[in-house]
Amino acid sequence: MQVKEIGMLTIGFILFLIGLGFYILEPAWIINPSGTGGAFIGAGVALFLITLREIRLKSKGNIVEDERVFHIAEKASHKTLVILIVLEGTLMAFLGVTAFDIQAYPVVSLLFAITMISYAGFYYWYKK
User: Which residues are listed as membrane-spanning (predicted)?
Assistant: First the structure.
């Protein structure tokens, strides 16, 4: 196991512990401790599982990273960025014209979800 994998497993475990701490302690300075804790726990578990998958693939002799993977990731990132620029520009224009008093948390959460879903979709689209 390389230093990179050990670091990623450690970061995933730390994120999981931070989320567990937010979830259990429920600090007063956090608006939604269960949501924040869940986000950290989810990120930590996802990072941990992805790293374990890469270690398993490398131990079987599969090539995990090559030029093709990087090129696919670049194309998927570019398309996701283009979509987000259009969505965010439309949202800013809509909020600038109308007098809606919208909370930032749901909007940022929605944009985050759109970012992750569109990147994953484009990544698998270009991978085929």
Answer: 7-25, 31-52, 81-100, 106-126
